[in-house]
Amino acid sequence: MSKKRIISIIMLVVLAVGIALAVYGATGVGIYDNAATMLGGDKKAAIGYIQDPSTLTEIGSLDKLGADKVSSFLKGLGLDASKVDAAVDERVKYETAVANSKDRSKFLAYAQSVDESVTEDNLNDLIKDHDKSDPMRAAMAMQELGITDEAQFAKLATNEELLALYKEGLPKLLENGRMTSGVLIQFVGIILIVIALAYFVIQAMDIKPRGKTRAANPKTAKVTTFLLNYALFIILGLILVVVSIIRIDFLSMNNILNILQNASTKGILALGCAGLIVLAGTDLSIGRVLGISAAVTASLVQSTTYASRMYPTIVQPLGAFGLLIPLFASIAIAVAFSLINGFGVAKLHLHAFIVTLGTQLIAYGANCLYIESQPSGTAQALSTFDPTFLNIAAGAIYIGELRIPLVVIYFLVLAAIVWVIWNKTKLGKNMFAVGGNMEAAAVSGVNVAKTIMLVYLLAGVLYGTASFLEAARITSVGANTGLNYELDAISAVVVGGVSFSGGVGTIQGVVIGAVIMQAIVYALQFLGINPYIQYIIRGLIIILAVSIDVRKYIVKK
Amino acid sequence: MELAKRQSEKTFSTDPKQPRRNKLYDKIKDNVSLRTVDLVIIITSVLLVAALVIGIITGKRPQ
Question: Which residue of A381, A385, A479, A499 has the lowest C-beta tally within 10 Å?
Protein backbone atom coordinates (compact mmCIF):
# COMPACT_ATOMS: atom_id res chain seq x y z
CA MET A 1 0.00 0.00 0.00
CA SER A 2 1.42 3.36 -0.99
CA LYS A 3 2.24 6.03 1.58
CA LYS A 4 -0.33 8.35 0.00
CA ARG A 5 -3.10 5.80 0.36
CA ILE A 6 -2.23 5.20 4.03
CA ILE A 7 -2.43 8.96 4.72
CA SER A 8 -5.76 9.09 2.90
CA ILE A 9 -7.16 6.33 5.10
CA ILE A 10 -5.86 8.10 8.21
CA MET A 11 -7.52 11.32 7.03
CA LEU A 12 -10.80 9.48 6.48
CA VAL A 13 -10.59 8.26 10.07
CA VAL A 14 -9.78 11.83 11.21
CA LEU A 15 -12.85 13.07 9.32
CA ALA A 16 -15.07 10.43 10.90
CA VAL A 17 -13.71 11.15 14.38
CA GLY A 18 -14.19 14.89 13.78
CA ILE A 19 -17.82 14.44 12.76
CA ALA A 20 -18.44 12.16 15.76
CA LEU A 21 -16.85 14.65 18.20
CA ALA A 22 -18.74 17.59 16.68
CA VAL A 23 -22.04 15.76 17.07
CA TYR A 24 -21.19 14.54 20.59
CA GLY A 25 -20.05 18.02 21.63
CA ALA A 26 -23.25 19.51 20.28
CA THR A 27 -25.28 17.32 22.65
CA GLY A 28 -23.32 18.81 25.55
CA VAL A 29 -23.87 22.34 24.29
CA GLY A 30 -27.54 21.49 23.90
CA ILE A 31 -27.94 21.21 27.67
CA TYR A 32 -29.08 24.81 27.83
CA ASP A 33 -31.79 24.00 25.30
CA ASN A 34 -32.72 20.91 27.28
CA ALA A 35 -32.85 22.90 30.53
CA ALA A 36 -34.96 25.56 28.81
CA THR A 37 -37.42 22.87 27.70
CA MET A 38 -37.49 21.37 31.19
CA LEU A 39 -38.19 24.78 32.71
CA GLY A 40 -40.92 25.56 30.22
CA GLY A 41 -39.24 28.85 29.30
CA ASP A 42 -36.87 30.27 26.71
CA LYS A 43 -33.14 29.63 26.44
CA LYS A 44 -32.14 33.08 27.69
CA ALA A 45 -34.20 32.69 30.85
CA ALA A 46 -32.83 29.15 31.34
CA ILE A 47 -29.24 30.46 31.23
CA GLY A 48 -30.19 32.99 33.92
CA TYR A 49 -31.75 30.26 36.11
CA ILE A 50 -28.75 27.95 35.70
CA GLN A 51 -26.34 30.71 36.70
CA ASP A 52 -28.54 31.89 39.58
CA PRO A 53 -31.13 29.27 40.56
CA SER A 54 -32.53 31.51 43.34
CA THR A 55 -34.29 33.56 40.63
CA LEU A 56 -36.36 30.52 39.60
CA THR A 57 -39.89 31.01 40.92
CA GLU A 58 -42.03 28.73 38.77
CA ILE A 59 -41.85 25.77 36.47
CA GLY A 60 -44.11 24.97 33.57
CA SER A 61 -46.93 22.45 33.90
CA LEU A 62 -45.78 18.82 34.09
CA ASP A 63 -48.64 17.90 31.81
CA LYS A 64 -47.02 19.95 29.05
CA LEU A 65 -43.37 19.25 29.91
CA GLY A 66 -43.92 15.52 30.39
CA ALA A 67 -43.57 14.09 33.92
CA ASP A 68 -41.25 11.29 32.72
CA LYS A 69 -38.95 13.74 30.95
CA VAL A 70 -38.73 16.03 33.99
CA SER A 71 -38.09 13.03 36.22
CA SER A 72 -35.25 11.70 34.05
CA PHE A 73 -33.81 15.24 33.62
CA LEU A 74 -33.63 15.73 37.40
CA LYS A 75 -32.27 12.25 38.00
CA GLY A 76 -29.69 12.91 35.28
CA LEU A 77 -28.49 15.83 37.36
CA GLY A 78 -27.54 13.37 40.10
CA LEU A 79 -30.43 14.10 42.47
CA ASP A 80 -31.88 11.47 44.82
CA ALA A 81 -34.18 9.34 42.62
CA SER A 82 -36.71 8.61 45.39
CA LYS A 83 -37.01 12.30 46.21
CA VAL A 84 -37.48 13.15 42.54
CA ASP A 85 -40.14 10.45 42.03
CA ALA A 86 -42.02 11.55 45.14
CA ALA A 87 -41.98 15.24 44.13
CA VAL A 88 -43.01 14.53 40.55
CA ASP A 89 -45.82 12.13 41.63
CA GLU A 90 -47.12 14.68 44.12
CA ARG A 91 -47.06 17.40 41.47
CA VAL A 92 -48.81 15.21 38.90
CA LYS A 93 -51.56 14.40 41.42
CA TYR A 94 -51.96 18.08 42.27
CA GLU A 95 -52.19 19.11 38.61
CA THR A 96 -54.72 16.32 37.93
CA ALA A 97 -56.85 17.40 40.91
CA VAL A 98 -56.76 21.04 39.80
CA ALA A 99 -57.61 20.01 36.22
CA ASN A 100 -60.57 17.95 37.50
CA SER A 101 -61.83 20.88 39.53
CA LYS A 102 -61.93 22.88 36.30
CA ASP A 103 -63.91 20.18 34.48
CA ARG A 104 -67.47 21.47 34.18
CA SER A 105 -69.36 18.20 34.77
CA LYS A 106 -67.12 17.09 37.65
CA PHE A 107 -67.34 20.52 39.23
CA LEU A 108 -71.17 20.46 38.91
CA ALA A 109 -71.33 17.08 40.66
CA TYR A 110 -69.11 18.36 43.49
CA ALA A 111 -70.95 21.66 43.81
CA GLN A 112 -74.30 19.87 44.03
CA SER A 113 -72.90 17.58 46.73
CA VAL A 114 -72.01 20.56 48.94
CA ASP A 115 -74.80 22.94 47.92
CA GLU A 116 -78.17 21.55 46.84
CA SER A 117 -79.27 24.86 45.33
CA VAL A 118 -76.67 24.49 42.48
CA THR A 119 -78.26 23.30 39.26
CA GLU A 120 -77.15 22.97 35.65
CA ASP A 121 -78.99 26.23 34.92
CA ASN A 122 -77.34 28.39 37.59
CA LEU A 123 -73.87 26.78 37.30
CA ASN A 124 -72.67 29.49 34.96
CA ASP A 125 -73.56 32.18 37.52
CA LEU A 126 -71.60 30.26 40.16
CA ILE A 127 -68.56 29.89 37.85
CA LYS A 128 -68.58 33.62 37.09
CA ASP A 129 -68.71 34.44 40.79
CA HIS A 130 -65.05 33.71 41.51
CA ASP A 131 -65.36 34.63 45.19
CA LYS A 132 -67.60 31.59 45.59
CA SER A 133 -66.40 29.20 42.89
CA ASP A 134 -62.64 29.46 43.48
CA PRO A 135 -62.71 28.31 47.15
CA MET A 136 -65.15 25.59 46.06
CA ARG A 137 -62.75 24.37 43.37
CA ALA A 138 -59.85 24.44 45.88
CA ALA A 139 -61.95 22.41 48.35
CA MET A 140 -62.79 19.92 45.60
CA ALA A 141 -59.10 19.49 44.72
CA MET A 142 -58.19 19.13 48.41
CA GLN A 143 -60.85 16.45 48.82
CA GLU A 144 -59.48 14.55 45.83
CA LEU A 145 -55.94 14.78 47.20
CA GLY A 146 -57.11 13.76 50.68
CA ILE A 147 -55.77 16.97 52.26
CA THR A 148 -57.55 18.90 54.97
CA ASP A 149 -54.86 21.43 55.80
CA GLU A 150 -55.08 24.54 53.60
CA ALA A 151 -51.44 25.45 54.27
CA GLN A 152 -50.37 22.08 52.89
CA PHE A 153 -52.46 22.70 49.78
CA ALA A 154 -50.92 26.16 49.34
CA LYS A 155 -47.49 24.53 49.57
CA LEU A 156 -48.48 22.17 46.78
CA ALA A 157 -49.77 25.07 44.71
CA THR A 158 -46.45 26.90 44.89
CA ASN A 159 -44.69 23.70 43.82
CA GLU A 160 -42.07 24.08 46.56
CA GLU A 161 -40.79 20.51 46.49
CA LEU A 162 -40.09 20.42 42.77
CA LEU A 163 -38.70 23.97 42.76
CA ALA A 164 -36.28 23.02 45.53
CA LEU A 165 -35.10 20.04 43.48
CA TYR A 166 -34.58 22.22 40.40
CA LYS A 167 -32.63 24.78 42.46
CA GLU A 168 -30.47 22.00 43.86
CA GLY A 169 -29.94 20.36 40.48
CA LEU A 170 -29.40 23.25 38.04
CA PRO A 171 -25.99 24.36 39.42
CA LYS A 172 -24.77 20.80 38.82
CA LEU A 173 -25.01 21.52 35.10
CA LEU A 174 -22.10 23.91 35.53
CA GLU A 175 -20.30 21.85 38.17
CA ASN A 176 -19.96 18.74 36.03
CA GLY A 177 -18.34 20.84 33.31
CA ARG A 178 -20.17 19.00 30.55
CA MET A 179 -21.24 22.23 28.94
CA THR A 180 -17.72 23.65 28.82
CA SER A 181 -16.23 20.38 27.61
CA GLY A 182 -19.10 20.09 25.11
CA VAL A 183 -18.09 23.38 23.50
CA LEU A 184 -14.43 22.37 23.43
CA ILE A 185 -15.17 18.90 22.05
CA GLN A 186 -17.34 20.46 19.36
CA PHE A 187 -14.48 22.73 18.27
CA VAL A 188 -11.95 19.88 18.34
CA GLY A 189 -14.35 18.02 16.04
CA ILE A 190 -14.61 21.01 13.71
CA ILE A 191 -10.79 21.38 13.63
CA LEU A 192 -10.39 17.69 12.70
CA ILE A 193 -13.05 17.99 9.97
CA VAL A 194 -11.29 21.05 8.51
CA ILE A 195 -7.88 19.30 8.58
CA ALA A 196 -9.26 16.24 6.81
CA LEU A 197 -11.21 18.26 4.25
CA ALA A 198 -8.20 20.50 3.59
CA TYR A 199 -6.11 17.39 2.94
CA PHE A 200 -8.65 15.97 0.50
CA VAL A 201 -9.08 19.27 -1.32
CA ILE A 202 -5.30 19.65 -1.70
CA GLN A 203 -5.04 16.05 -2.88
CA ALA A 204 -7.78 16.69 -5.43
CA MET A 205 -5.57 19.40 -6.97
CA ASP A 206 -2.88 16.82 -7.64
CA ILE A 207 -5.05 14.31 -9.48
CA LYS A 208 -4.02 14.14 -13.10
CA PRO A 209 -6.84 14.04 -15.62
CA ARG A 210 -7.36 10.48 -16.79
CA GLY A 211 -7.43 11.00 -20.51
CA LYS A 212 -9.07 7.74 -21.47
CA THR A 213 -11.87 7.87 -18.94
CA ARG A 214 -12.70 11.49 -19.71
CA ALA A 215 -12.47 11.08 -23.45
CA ALA A 216 -14.53 7.90 -23.36
CA ASN A 217 -17.57 9.70 -21.95
CA PRO A 218 -18.23 12.79 -24.06
CA LYS A 219 -21.90 12.79 -22.97
CA THR A 220 -20.96 12.80 -19.30
CA ALA A 221 -18.45 15.55 -19.96
CA LYS A 222 -21.14 17.57 -21.73
CA VAL A 223 -23.59 17.15 -18.85
CA THR A 224 -20.88 18.02 -16.31
CA THR A 225 -19.95 21.15 -18.24
CA PHE A 226 -23.62 22.14 -18.46
CA LEU A 227 -24.11 21.60 -14.71
CA LEU A 228 -20.98 23.61 -13.89
CA ASN A 229 -21.87 26.49 -16.22
CA TYR A 230 -25.47 26.69 -15.03
CA ALA A 231 -25.00 25.66 -11.37
CA LEU A 232 -26.05 29.10 -10.16
CA PHE A 233 -29.27 29.24 -12.17
CA ILE A 234 -30.12 25.65 -11.21
CA ILE A 235 -29.75 26.48 -7.50
CA LEU A 236 -31.58 29.80 -7.78
CA GLY A 237 -34.39 28.11 -9.71
CA LEU A 238 -34.50 25.41 -7.05
CA ILE A 239 -34.90 28.03 -4.30
CA LEU A 240 -37.82 29.64 -6.13
CA VAL A 241 -39.48 26.26 -6.78
CA VAL A 242 -39.06 25.20 -3.12
CA VAL A 243 -40.48 28.45 -1.77
CA SER A 244 -43.39 28.30 -4.23
CA ILE A 245 -44.22 24.79 -2.99
CA ILE A 246 -43.84 25.58 0.71
CA ARG A 247 -45.62 28.94 0.50
CA ILE A 248 -48.05 28.99 -2.39
CA ASP A 249 -48.85 32.69 -1.73
CA PHE A 250 -45.30 33.54 -2.84
CA LEU A 251 -46.55 33.67 -6.43
CA SER A 252 -49.42 36.09 -5.72
CA MET A 253 -49.60 39.17 -7.96
CA ASN A 254 -49.13 41.49 -4.96
CA ASN A 255 -45.98 39.71 -3.99
CA ILE A 256 -44.57 39.77 -7.50
CA LEU A 257 -45.21 43.52 -7.69
CA ASN A 258 -43.54 43.96 -4.30
CA ILE A 259 -40.49 42.09 -5.57
CA LEU A 260 -40.40 44.30 -8.69
CA GLN A 261 -40.82 47.45 -6.57
CA ASN A 262 -37.94 46.51 -4.27
CA ALA A 263 -35.82 45.34 -7.20
CA SER A 264 -36.25 48.69 -8.96
CA THR A 265 -34.01 50.95 -6.86
CA LYS A 266 -31.40 48.21 -6.50
CA GLY A 267 -31.76 47.62 -10.24
CA ILE A 268 -31.02 51.27 -11.02
CA LEU A 269 -27.90 51.03 -8.86
CA ALA A 270 -26.99 47.84 -10.72
CA LEU A 271 -27.37 49.64 -14.06
CA GLY A 272 -24.75 52.16 -12.94
CA CYS A 273 -22.47 49.57 -11.40
CA ALA A 274 -22.72 47.31 -14.48
CA GLY A 275 -20.87 49.88 -16.62
CA LEU A 276 -18.00 49.97 -14.12
CA ILE A 277 -17.80 46.18 -14.08
CA VAL A 278 -17.77 46.14 -17.91
CA LEU A 279 -14.68 48.33 -17.51
CA ALA A 280 -13.25 45.50 -15.37
CA GLY A 281 -13.66 47.69 -12.29
CA THR A 282 -16.09 47.72 -9.39
CA ASP A 283 -17.70 50.12 -6.94
CA LEU A 284 -17.81 49.49 -3.22
CA SER A 285 -19.09 52.97 -2.39
CA ILE A 286 -22.58 52.53 -3.91
CA GLY A 287 -24.41 51.95 -0.62
CA ARG A 288 -22.88 54.83 1.29
CA VAL A 289 -23.14 57.22 -1.66
CA LEU A 290 -26.82 56.30 -1.85
CA GLY A 291 -27.01 56.98 1.89
CA ILE A 292 -25.74 60.56 1.67
CA SER A 293 -27.64 61.37 -1.55
CA ALA A 294 -30.85 60.01 -0.03
CA ALA A 295 -30.19 62.06 3.13
CA VAL A 296 -29.84 65.24 1.06
CA THR A 297 -33.04 64.40 -0.81
CA ALA A 298 -34.85 63.64 2.44
CA SER A 299 -33.76 66.89 4.07
CA LEU A 300 -35.11 68.89 1.12
CA VAL A 301 -38.48 67.16 0.83
CA GLN A 302 -39.55 67.12 4.48
CA SER A 303 -43.12 68.27 5.01
CA THR A 304 -43.36 72.01 5.76
CA THR A 305 -45.78 71.18 8.57
CA TYR A 306 -43.16 69.05 10.32
CA ALA A 307 -41.69 71.09 13.17
CA SER A 308 -38.36 69.21 13.44
CA ARG A 309 -37.47 69.45 9.76
CA MET A 310 -33.88 69.95 8.68
CA TYR A 311 -34.50 73.27 6.93
CA PRO A 312 -37.17 75.22 8.82
CA THR A 313 -36.66 78.09 6.37
CA ILE A 314 -38.42 76.11 3.62
CA VAL A 315 -41.97 77.19 4.34
CA GLN A 316 -43.65 76.54 1.00
CA PRO A 317 -44.20 73.00 -0.32
CA LEU A 318 -41.89 72.40 -3.28
CA GLY A 319 -44.55 71.25 -5.73
CA ALA A 320 -44.01 68.89 -8.65
CA PHE A 321 -41.42 71.04 -10.50
CA GLY A 322 -39.74 72.07 -7.27
CA LEU A 323 -38.92 68.39 -6.72
CA LEU A 324 -36.34 68.72 -9.48
CA ILE A 325 -34.12 70.56 -6.96
CA PRO A 326 -33.78 67.63 -4.52
CA LEU A 327 -33.48 65.25 -7.50
CA PHE A 328 -30.60 67.24 -9.04
CA ALA A 329 -29.02 67.78 -5.62
CA SER A 330 -29.07 64.03 -5.05
CA ILE A 331 -27.58 63.40 -8.49
CA ALA A 332 -24.92 66.10 -7.92
CA ILE A 333 -23.75 64.50 -4.67
CA ALA A 334 -23.61 61.02 -6.23
CA VAL A 335 -21.84 62.33 -9.34
CA ALA A 336 -19.24 64.11 -7.18
CA PHE A 337 -18.32 60.86 -5.45
CA SER A 338 -18.40 58.93 -8.74
CA LEU A 339 -16.07 61.43 -10.40
CA ILE A 340 -13.59 61.08 -7.52
CA ASN A 341 -13.70 57.32 -8.11
CA GLY A 342 -13.37 57.81 -11.86
CA PHE A 343 -10.41 60.20 -11.49
CA GLY A 344 -8.64 57.76 -9.20
CA VAL A 345 -9.11 54.90 -11.68
CA ALA A 346 -8.62 56.77 -14.98
CA LYS A 347 -5.88 59.23 -14.15
CA LEU A 348 -4.13 57.88 -11.06
CA HIS A 349 -4.41 54.27 -12.26
CA LEU A 350 -5.51 53.16 -8.80
CA HIS A 351 -7.42 49.96 -8.42
CA ALA A 352 -11.18 50.64 -8.34
CA PHE A 353 -11.45 48.47 -5.24
CA ILE A 354 -9.17 50.78 -3.23
CA VAL A 355 -10.54 54.13 -4.46
CA THR A 356 -14.18 53.15 -3.95
CA LEU A 357 -13.37 51.71 -0.52
CA GLY A 358 -11.98 55.12 0.42
CA THR A 359 -14.94 57.08 -0.94
CA GLN A 360 -17.27 54.65 0.80
CA LEU A 361 -15.85 55.71 4.17
CA ILE A 362 -15.84 59.39 3.19
CA ALA A 363 -19.48 59.20 2.11
CA TYR A 364 -20.45 57.45 5.33
CA GLY A 365 -18.68 60.02 7.49
CA ALA A 366 -20.20 62.90 5.52
CA ASN A 367 -23.65 61.35 5.81
CA CYS A 368 -23.35 60.99 9.60
CA LEU A 369 -22.18 64.61 9.91
CA TYR A 370 -25.03 65.82 7.70
CA ILE A 371 -27.68 63.95 9.67
CA GLU A 372 -26.18 65.12 12.96
CA SER A 373 -26.31 68.73 11.80
CA GLN A 374 -30.09 68.89 12.19
CA PRO A 375 -31.36 71.93 14.13
CA SER A 376 -32.75 69.59 16.77
CA GLY A 377 -29.14 68.56 17.48
CA THR A 378 -30.05 64.88 17.32
CA ALA A 379 -29.04 62.24 14.82
CA GLN A 380 -32.59 61.06 14.28
CA ALA A 381 -33.55 59.71 10.88
CA LEU A 382 -34.92 62.22 8.38
CA SER A 383 -38.61 61.49 7.90
CA THR A 384 -42.11 62.95 7.39
CA PHE A 385 -41.95 63.75 3.69
CA ASP A 386 -44.03 66.01 1.51
CA PRO A 387 -47.04 64.10 0.06
CA THR A 388 -46.29 65.38 -3.46
CA PHE A 389 -42.82 63.86 -3.26
CA LEU A 390 -44.19 60.55 -2.02
CA ASN A 391 -46.86 60.50 -4.73
CA ILE A 392 -44.39 61.18 -7.53
CA ALA A 393 -41.45 59.08 -6.34
CA ALA A 394 -43.22 56.22 -4.58
CA GLY A 395 -46.74 56.37 -5.97
CA ALA A 396 -48.48 53.97 -8.30
CA ILE A 397 -50.72 53.88 -11.32
CA TYR A 398 -53.70 51.61 -11.62
CA ILE A 399 -54.57 49.50 -14.64
CA GLY A 400 -57.99 48.19 -13.68
CA GLU A 401 -57.40 46.83 -10.18
CA LEU A 402 -53.73 46.19 -10.83
CA ARG A 403 -51.48 48.56 -8.87
CA ILE A 404 -48.22 49.20 -10.71
CA PRO A 405 -45.61 51.10 -8.63
CA LEU A 406 -44.18 54.12 -10.48
CA VAL A 407 -40.67 53.16 -9.43
CA VAL A 408 -40.93 50.03 -11.60
CA ILE A 409 -41.75 52.22 -14.59
CA TYR A 410 -38.86 54.59 -13.77
CA PHE A 411 -36.54 51.59 -13.58
CA LEU A 412 -37.63 50.26 -16.97
CA VAL A 413 -37.31 53.72 -18.58
CA LEU A 414 -33.80 54.17 -17.17
CA ALA A 415 -32.88 50.65 -18.28
CA ALA A 416 -34.03 51.54 -21.81
CA ILE A 417 -31.98 54.76 -21.77
CA VAL A 418 -28.85 52.94 -20.53
CA TRP A 419 -29.45 50.22 -23.15
CA VAL A 420 -29.36 52.91 -25.85
CA ILE A 421 -26.16 54.39 -24.37
CA TRP A 422 -24.48 50.99 -24.21
CA ASN A 423 -25.53 49.77 -27.64
CA LYS A 424 -26.12 52.79 -29.86
CA THR A 425 -23.59 55.42 -28.85
CA LYS A 426 -19.87 55.92 -29.25
CA LEU A 427 -19.47 55.95 -25.47
CA GLY A 428 -21.01 52.46 -25.25
CA LYS A 429 -18.74 51.06 -27.94
CA ASN A 430 -15.68 52.69 -26.34
CA MET A 431 -16.71 51.32 -22.94
CA PHE A 432 -16.78 47.74 -24.23
CA ALA A 433 -13.51 48.31 -26.08
CA VAL A 434 -11.76 49.65 -22.97
CA GLY A 435 -13.25 46.89 -20.80
CA GLY A 436 -12.32 44.16 -23.29
CA ASN A 437 -8.75 45.26 -23.94
CA MET A 438 -7.53 48.58 -22.66
CA GLU A 439 -4.26 48.50 -24.62
CA ALA A 440 -5.98 47.70 -27.91
CA ALA A 441 -8.59 50.41 -27.28
CA ALA A 442 -5.88 53.00 -26.57
CA VAL A 443 -3.93 52.02 -29.70
CA SER A 444 -7.16 52.27 -31.72
CA GLY A 445 -7.49 55.90 -30.71
CA VAL A 446 -10.03 55.55 -27.87
CA ASN A 447 -9.52 58.12 -25.16
CA VAL A 448 -9.40 55.63 -22.29
CA ALA A 449 -9.40 58.14 -19.43
CA LYS A 450 -12.31 60.12 -20.87
CA THR A 451 -14.32 56.95 -21.44
CA ILE A 452 -13.74 55.78 -17.87
CA MET A 453 -14.72 59.21 -16.48
CA LEU A 454 -17.92 59.27 -18.57
CA VAL A 455 -18.94 55.79 -17.44
CA TYR A 456 -18.38 56.82 -13.81
CA LEU A 457 -20.40 59.98 -14.48
CA LEU A 458 -23.27 57.90 -15.86
CA ALA A 459 -23.06 55.65 -12.80
CA GLY A 460 -23.26 58.73 -10.55
CA VAL A 461 -26.39 60.01 -12.31
CA LEU A 462 -28.03 56.61 -11.85
CA TYR A 463 -26.99 56.37 -8.18
CA GLY A 464 -28.40 59.86 -7.54
CA THR A 465 -31.72 58.97 -9.18
CA ALA A 466 -31.88 55.70 -7.23
CA SER A 467 -31.19 57.61 -3.99
CA PHE A 468 -34.06 60.02 -4.70
CA LEU A 469 -36.46 57.12 -5.30
CA GLU A 470 -35.14 55.05 -2.40
CA ALA A 471 -35.73 57.92 0.06
CA ALA A 472 -39.39 57.92 -0.97
CA ARG A 473 -39.64 54.13 -0.80
CA ILE A 474 -38.22 53.74 2.71
CA THR A 475 -39.78 57.05 3.97
CA SER A 476 -37.05 57.53 6.57
CA VAL A 477 -33.36 58.13 5.92
CA GLY A 478 -30.79 57.55 8.66
CA ALA A 479 -27.04 57.08 8.98
CA ASN A 480 -27.33 53.40 8.09
CA THR A 481 -29.39 53.87 4.93
CA GLY A 482 -27.70 52.17 2.02
CA LEU A 483 -25.74 49.72 4.13
CA ASN A 484 -24.69 46.74 1.97
CA TYR A 485 -26.55 48.00 -1.10
CA GLU A 486 -23.34 47.57 -3.08
CA LEU A 487 -23.54 43.84 -2.42
CA ASP A 488 -27.07 43.72 -3.84
CA ALA A 489 -26.06 45.78 -6.87
CA ILE A 490 -22.86 43.84 -7.59
CA SER A 491 -24.55 40.46 -7.10
CA ALA A 492 -27.40 41.52 -9.42
CA VAL A 493 -24.84 42.55 -12.06
CA VAL A 494 -22.81 39.34 -11.75
CA VAL A 495 -25.89 37.11 -11.72
CA GLY A 496 -27.04 39.08 -14.76
CA GLY A 497 -24.04 37.83 -16.71
CA VAL A 498 -21.74 40.87 -16.64
CA SER A 499 -18.22 39.51 -16.47
CA PHE A 500 -15.64 40.77 -14.00
CA SER A 501 -13.08 40.14 -16.74
CA GLY A 502 -14.50 43.24 -18.45
CA GLY A 503 -15.97 43.91 -21.86
CA VAL A 504 -18.91 41.52 -21.46
CA GLY A 505 -22.48 42.27 -20.35
CA THR A 506 -25.97 43.25 -21.37
CA ILE A 507 -28.56 45.59 -19.88
CA GLN A 508 -31.33 43.00 -20.16
CA GLY A 509 -29.08 40.63 -18.16
CA VAL A 510 -28.64 43.26 -15.43
CA VAL A 511 -32.43 43.85 -15.23
CA ILE A 512 -33.11 40.12 -14.97
CA GLY A 513 -30.26 39.73 -12.45
CA ALA A 514 -31.72 42.49 -10.24
CA VAL A 515 -35.18 40.91 -10.29
CA ILE A 516 -33.82 37.39 -9.66
CA MET A 517 -31.70 38.55 -6.72
CA GLN A 518 -34.62 40.41 -5.17
CA ALA A 519 -36.85 37.37 -5.69
CA ILE A 520 -34.24 35.24 -3.90
CA VAL A 521 -34.03 37.71 -1.01
CA TYR A 522 -37.83 37.61 -0.76
CA ALA A 523 -37.88 33.83 -1.02
CA LEU A 524 -35.37 33.49 1.83
CA GLN A 525 -37.49 35.80 3.97
CA PHE A 526 -40.61 33.85 3.03
CA LEU A 527 -38.94 30.65 4.15
CA GLY A 528 -38.19 32.31 7.48
CA ILE A 529 -34.45 31.68 7.07
CA ASN A 530 -32.29 33.26 9.78
CA PRO A 531 -31.04 36.67 8.50
CA TYR A 532 -27.42 35.73 9.24
CA ILE A 533 -27.76 32.57 7.16
CA GLN A 534 -29.26 34.78 4.44
CA TYR A 535 -26.01 36.77 4.37
CA ILE A 536 -24.03 33.54 4.02
CA ILE A 537 -26.27 32.41 1.16
CA ARG A 538 -25.95 35.72 -0.66
CA GLY A 539 -22.16 35.69 -0.25
CA LEU A 540 -21.98 32.16 -1.63
CA ILE A 541 -24.15 33.19 -4.60
CA ILE A 542 -21.63 35.93 -5.46
CA ILE A 543 -18.65 33.55 -5.13
CA LEU A 544 -20.44 30.95 -7.26
CA ALA A 545 -21.35 33.50 -9.93
CA VAL A 546 -17.75 34.77 -10.14
CA SER A 547 -16.31 31.22 -10.17
CA ILE A 548 -18.57 30.30 -13.10
CA ASP A 549 -17.53 33.52 -14.82
CA VAL A 550 -13.84 32.64 -14.35
CA ARG A 551 -14.51 29.14 -15.68
CA LYS A 552 -16.12 30.49 -18.84
CA TYR A 553 -13.18 32.89 -19.33
CA ILE A 554 -10.59 30.13 -18.96
CA VAL A 555 -12.49 27.87 -21.39
CA LYS A 556 -12.81 30.73 -23.88
CA LYS A 557 -9.10 31.47 -23.77
CA MET B 1 -2.87 57.65 -34.56
CA GLU B 2 0.82 58.09 -33.79
CA LEU B 3 -0.03 60.26 -30.84
CA ALA B 4 -2.42 57.65 -29.55
CA LYS B 5 0.21 54.96 -29.98
CA ARG B 6 2.81 57.01 -28.12
CA GLN B 7 0.30 57.64 -25.34
CA SER B 8 -0.46 53.97 -25.19
CA GLU B 9 3.22 53.05 -25.03
CA LYS B 10 3.69 55.57 -22.26
CA THR B 11 0.79 54.15 -20.32
CA PHE B 12 1.37 50.46 -20.86
CA SER B 13 4.49 48.36 -20.75
CA THR B 14 6.04 47.68 -24.14
CA ASP B 15 8.51 45.04 -23.06
CA PRO B 16 7.56 42.06 -25.23
CA LYS B 17 9.03 39.61 -22.75
CA GLN B 18 6.87 40.85 -19.93
CA PRO B 19 3.59 42.10 -21.33
CA ARG B 20 1.58 44.15 -18.89
CA ARG B 21 -1.11 42.04 -17.26
CA ASN B 22 -3.76 44.31 -15.94
CA LYS B 23 -6.56 41.82 -16.07
CA LEU B 24 -7.30 39.86 -12.96
CA TYR B 25 -8.76 36.98 -14.93
CA ASP B 26 -5.58 36.63 -17.01
CA LYS B 27 -3.62 36.21 -13.81
CA ILE B 28 -6.11 33.62 -12.63
CA LYS B 29 -5.93 31.84 -16.00
CA ASP B 30 -2.14 31.71 -15.81
CA ASN B 31 -2.07 30.27 -12.31
CA VAL B 32 -5.21 28.24 -11.84
CA SER B 33 -6.29 25.12 -13.71
CA LEU B 34 -9.79 24.54 -15.01
CA ARG B 35 -10.04 21.58 -12.65
CA THR B 36 -9.42 23.81 -9.62
CA VAL B 37 -12.10 26.26 -10.74
CA ASP B 38 -14.50 23.33 -11.22
CA LEU B 39 -13.67 22.20 -7.70
CA VAL B 40 -14.40 25.69 -6.34
CA ILE B 41 -17.76 25.71 -8.18
CA ILE B 42 -18.69 22.29 -6.79
CA ILE B 43 -17.66 23.13 -3.22
CA THR B 44 -19.48 26.50 -3.33
CA SER B 45 -22.60 24.84 -4.75
CA VAL B 46 -22.55 22.19 -2.01
CA LEU B 47 -22.07 24.86 0.68
CA LEU B 48 -24.89 26.93 -0.82
CA VAL B 49 -27.29 24.00 -0.84
CA ALA B 50 -26.21 23.04 2.71
CA ALA B 51 -26.80 26.62 3.93
CA LEU B 52 -30.23 26.59 2.31
CA VAL B 53 -31.19 23.25 3.85
CA ILE B 54 -29.97 24.34 7.30
CA GLY B 55 -31.78 27.66 6.86
CA ILE B 56 -35.04 26.00 5.86
CA ILE B 57 -34.85 23.43 8.68
CA THR B 58 -34.06 26.00 11.36
CA GLY B 59 -36.25 28.72 9.81
CA LYS B 60 -39.22 30.17 11.64
CA ARG B 61 -41.97 30.63 9.12
CA PRO B 62 -44.82 32.91 10.10
CA GLN B 63 -48.04 30.89 10.20
Answer: A381
